[in-house]
Amino acid sequence: MFAARSPQSLFAPFFSPVLAAALGLALLAGCSEKPAAAPTPGPLPVTVLDMQPQRLPSYIEVMAQTEGARETEVRARVGGILEKRLYQEGDMVREGQPLFQIDRSTYEIAVADARAKAQQTAREMQRLKGLIEANAISRKDYDDAVSANDMAQAALRQAELNLSWTTVTAPVSGTTGRAVKSEGNLISTADSLLTSIFQSNPIWVRFSLGDSDLAKLPGGHASRQNARGVELVLADGSVYPQPGKLNFLASNIDLTLGTQQLRAEFDNRDGALLPGQFVRARLLTGDLDGVFLVPQGAVIQSERGTLLMLAEDGKVAPRPVKVGEWRGKDWIILSGLKAGDQVIVDNLLKLRPGAPVAPHPPAAPGSAPGAPAGAPNAAPPAKG
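Structure (tokenized):
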């Protein structure tokens, strides 16, 4: 009988030399291979702006509201039934233009009666004049006739005035308001308001300066010396073309609001501004010399203060700066920059102090996104 053999003894003649050779080759290969080195990142491309100092106007901008330079109430001088409104509410009217008509009938009768009495007293005075010259009557009788005639003529004049006042006219030129009374209403001298007229040329703009605004001015308040002029910013962001001038500065600070009241006057011949309109008033206070404009997105607020990232010698260099106010989409930088500094305006989240960067100027309008200024756009793909 054959003796039983283990599996290892059966395959030992074949595996021993082959296995040894394979293991040797594997060890040699493992010793000769080295781990692949990670690729070294190149400088990060960044867009930079070349800083140059500028001279900018200094101003304080606050909310304001327009108002008519003169607001005049239109009132009836006589009572009666209001028959007709002779103007379109909200229209421009000229001085002396008829606005309302009050019933004339009773006043016409009063004029006729006063005229008849005036004519009678005038005839009586003339009759007595001849008699006094002939010494046929006393001087007192003639003087009484003269006085009666004078009073009758005055009553006639008053009646004529009352009749003329039944046509209510515009006391000034301007923009009319809403009519307070309607046709058919009874007008009395105690309740005589009919409408108002707003004189909108020139137009006034009223505004006030708070504590934070006043702190920016010498002496802590606005004066003729530190307020050079006023501009208006309309609702669409455009600047009103006509410059304004201050015509009122309060000499005290309002105790309730803690503000100083101001008022400016603007030419409004074309009627572009309406009374009651909300605008923004810019109080011009001087000029800022040697300042820089930096996009708002490039300014970093940190625990170290306000910073800008600069490209210096191909590396990122943080620079603390002092900022002023916003000017459009930019910050005004008061200090911390000098002419020729390269301020980085993009990829700020990827920047680290001292990291290498490849700065380039902003892309020219119409160039491919990310392309430096002056770089041509990529050629369009060829058509088959």
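The longest strand covers residues 54-75. The chain has four helices and 20 strands.
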